[in-house]
Amino acid sequence: MRFWKREELTEEERRWRRRQFRTHVIYAMIFLSFTSLLLRAAYVQISNGKAYRQAEVSIPKARIPVLPQRGWIYDANGQILAWDKPALSIVMNRYSTTSDATYRRLASALAPVLHQTPDALYRLMKADSGTIQVTLAKNVSLAQVAYVVEHQSELPGVQVIQDYIREYPYGDLAGQVLGYVGAITAENVSRYQGYLYSQKVGETGIEEQYEPLLQGKPGYELVTINSAGNAIAEAGEIPPQNGDNLQLTLDGHEQACAQMIMQSMIQKVSDKNAIENAAAVMLDVKTGGVIAMVSYPYLDPNWFTLGTLAQHAHYASTSGAQVNNAIAMVNYPGSTVKPANLITAMKAGLVNPQTTIQDDGYIYIGKSRKNEDEGFAFGAVDPVEALTVSSDVFFYQVGLWLGKWFGSSATQGGSWPAEDGSYQHYLNTDLAKGMNALFQGEADFGLGYKTGIDLPYESDGAFYILDSRQGNRQVTYDLKASERSIAKTGEYVNYGSPASLADAAIGQSQMFTPLQLAEYALTLANRGVRVKPHVLQAVYGPNGTPTNGAKPVSTVKPKVEGRVSAADWQWNLVERGMLGVTTTQNGTAYGAFAGAPYQVAGKTGTAQIMLGGKPTDNSVFICYAPADHPQVAVAVMAPGGGYGAQFSAVIARQMLDAYFNEHHAPFMPKRGWTDTSIPANWKTSPAYQIPEQSP
């Protein structure tokens, strides 16, 4: 399928041919402005040919750098997400030996040529001292180029370079995923051996992750110069090697829809300031490819490459938009962990399909009482019903059983096994083993640790335990250290509480990223097969693109990172409970999925958190669909968004609708079908415009 108008395809195809001749054309135009100089040189050649030829070998040559074109970035459908536009720039290399007086002299000489005041140009030359090379002017005219070339000997460190301007044609579409480029600085110059100071390098996102592929290698235009330091003729070219082009797994259409859906939901919240950040991830269940990755607040990479950052400095520095919340935001998952914990309990032989627990709305653990959320009392619940209605009391018991704390109910607090002896010995042995069983069971699904996705700055998750020495405050629980200690000595010293078992079983003693939750949902969909998430799909050579018929140089293959072993009846039981969440009237996300023409296996999560010093809820939802033949897995997290069913589940439903409509799923009404193009209304949507309007 073609995604460009005829003229756009022609322009894309032409760029490859232009590259071969671009430097020659530029200098040809420059030399036209030096007609008299060249005529005089020709006269000298004719009238003094022999002497000239003898001296020719002694004429010095200057190397003018020709930067490579950075590789372009495409979405899964061949739509361009990042490209380079050729331009001429005047730059200055800043040497430590350059005096302040020299800077002022250069500023005075160049100010009228560059249409700036000497003071403004001086400040530009001195600004951002960490950058080795400063750009004085971009997209310069031939007259400005001619002045620099003619006065090169008087302008130490100043040069004309063929540059490129990095542009992101869809603004903040997947802004944090794409990242942006910036100048080489004194702090990072050691990382870029062999680079020119004028080269731009990836600073975040895909631009940073795949810098070696995207960058290419610079070339040079050789120019002969006379004794006065003026260029008089071309002497050859060492052509640059352009960067490779990348195709991502990201679906531009789904990404745009997801960002618009997220923005719309946030705009509908009564207190819009309550949601400071949010994220949503959609993964291909079979390959692990990231179909959409939303990080709110949004960020436009163009601010960093087109020189408009100052207009958005307050927003960029205070909103947190530069963080990719999908991979770096960690928060409590709430009840979304219950399917994993149920698998752990069933594998331990503690729960079977007939297990029934009386949920009276609360339970005592020792002398403390733990309540069902919102005061609900579900009565007798089995494992399927416990997932469907999200019974906390059922899972309190699951956690306590795994930690061998027995006898808790609505009337008594239970106790540890008599054979454990002292309470402290119980904490160091059976309680620690129970915590490990819960947390390791979750880790097997991809929770708590980095997924290894091909994006920089991914965060780990965290596990916690209550510490009686610190007023029962949660402290970090080192799962790996505990497992090593128990394997070696049979104990792991801790000062926890059986209440930690109950909290862990309902997702209040651990923190994960949205991406980890998406990988977890993928693993549930695959019945235990955990596939590594990735963003890169294919690499093309400098002359190849996803739309010109070229074959990729390499492609990314699915990689299985782990497996969770469980019996078919156990997977079936969990799936029945997750289906109940979205398809039965007592399911926690029934309202969000009512009327859906496909079945979804999902789980809501609502974790109590503090935000800005105030108590609120972390809204979380995970799912995969269609439930009978899973294609995609989704995770949504929005601290401050309220109940998982009322915010995050609604976003997930709309993301699924958009995906299935784009792919013309037979169960979706044809009137709603779309195509793979980025929606025509993207640039008029609030999701695109709000960051642009930031102060």
Automatic annotation (TrEMBL):
Domain Penicillin-binding protein dimerisation: start-end pairs: 68-234
- Is the keyword GTP-binding in the record? no
Q: Which residue ranges traverse the bilayer?
A: 21-43
Q: Which UniProt keywords apply?
A: Cell membrane, Cell shape, Cell wall biogenesis/degradation, Membrane, Peptidoglycan synthesis, Transmembrane, Transmembrane helix
Please state every residue range assigned to the domain named Penicillin-binding protein transpeptidase. Answer: 279-656
Record's InterPro entries? Answer: Beta-lactam/transpept (IPR050515), Beta-lactam/transpept-like (IPR012338), PBP_dimer (IPR005311), PBP_dimer_sf (IPR036138), PCN-bd_Tpept (IPR001460)
Q: What is its main location?
A: membrane
Record has Hydrolase as a keyword: no
Q: Which Pfam families match?
A: PBP_dimer (PF03717), Transpeptidase (PF00905)
- Subcellular localization: Cell membrane; Membrane
Q: Give the record's membrane topology.
A: Single-pass membrane protein
Q: Return the similarity comment.
A: Belongs to the transpeptidase family.
Q: What is this protein called?
A: Penicillin-binding transpeptidase domain-containing protein
Q: Which organism is it from?
A: Alicyclobacillus sendaiensis PA2
